[in-house]
Amino acid sequence: MAAYDFDLFVIGAGSGGVRAARMAAGFGARVAVAEDRYFGGTCVNVGCIPKKLLVYAAHYPHAVAAARGYGFETAAPKFDWPTLIANKDQEIARLNGVYERVLTNAGCKILNGRATLLDPHTVEVNGVRHSAANILVATGGWPYVPDIPGREHAITSNEAFHLPALPKRVVIVGGGYIAVEFAGIFHGLGAATTQIYRGPLFLRGFDGEVRTFLAAEMRARGVKLLFDNDVSSIVEEGGELVLSLKDGTRLACDGVLYATGRRPNSGKLGLAECGVELDADGAIRVDANYRTACPSIYAVGDVTNRVNLTPVALAEGMALARALFGGMDRQVDYDYIPTAVFSTPPIGTVGLTEEQARDVYGDVAVYTSSFTPLRYTISPVKERAFMKLVVDKASDRVVGAHMCGEDAGEIVQGFAVAMRAGATKAVFDSTIGIHPTAAEEFVTMRDPVR
What we know:
Blueprint: E1 6-11, H1 15-26, E2 31-35, H2 41-46, H3 48-67, H4 81-106, E3 109-112, E4 115-119, E5 122-125, E6 128-137, E7 141-143, H5 157-160, E8 169-173, H6 177-188, E9 192-196, H7 208-221, E10 224-226, E11 231-237, E12 240-245, E13 250-253, E14 255-258, E15 262-264, E16 297-299, H8 310-325, E17 339-341, E18 347-351, H9 354-361, E19 364-371, E20 385-392, E21 398-404, H10 408-420, H11 425-430
Parallel strand pairs: 1-2, 1-6, 2-3, 6-16, 8-9, 8-14, 9-10
Antiparallel strand pairs: 4-5, 5-6, 7-15, 11-12, 12-13, 17-18, 18-21, 19-20, 20-21
Helix pairs in contact: 1-4, 1-8, 3-4, 3-6
């Protein structure tokens, strides 16, 4: 590989790119990383981390209200949006530095600027050409806003983290996890919040009962949900935004956030010129080893639009580095990947939905539990939790675990380990629960509901 400047050239310093670069350098490879925006990618800057910080903030008013049942009488809390954003920005800046130092300490060469592929082994950054034996594209995704009249008045999740003030009335357009998360954030922080989704129920692809339960809980908290509807246009009138909906109604607000999906960030990189194939949405097509149609070019993470989760991008980046430079050809196992939606209340899920399990296994047993967690039994505010297990009756294996309720992500992570190990319902039943916790419900559901 000495004929090239680098053994691996990584385009994009997000989760997948940084992991691949650091691991490759650890194996002794000469690595360069080009980044034209910010270190850490979507997750660190406009995704997981800042979103979770805002979710935490949105929970405090609810916690203060619940505290009255425990004898705490306090004045209504005063919230300052600029303080939250400034503190969030400080933490993100710290993480940007951490990611940059990780690369530098590993011995990677950092190039600040936009990279463009000139041929299968040449990358240009800031007018300078660099050759590489292998090139990895890890440029992530970018929010998509449909082309409707007035789309310039809308923001996406990217801009939501940098608003100068909290809008008093917010409309969220979309039905994915980003939409429901921001609906919970804005409502929790005091904004009158409406969520509009063109389908009959949001979170398509998640378990049906969980989706229905979350919708009921969000409505109970005061979020206005408008399903089977969509926005036709947005206009600015008298200092406010007015949305015309498909059903003919008009809705006034102070801010519109579109969370209608993300597209692979693959444009203007010179991919097609190198023979890299893209699908209709711009996703880079790769094989099981993350290799594109051009043998020297690879891609991992959201730019491939397969399983768009930060931990998956990390795993893919690690697997690629190990295969190319560590002599370890281990592919990522995409079965039983746990995930969470930090909605209000949150969702944690791993494995198959009931609908998917019936398609795969046919005969399944379904166990559910819905209850008020102990925290809210003496609280003036109420919140419920819902848990569900889906079991393949032939093998007794638990093939789906789903929860909507407080700490769902924290709880489901542990059960994901058991399910990857092949735990059966009998194993769940024989496990002694921790009492009193919500998590113990997963090991005390004895009678199937279906």
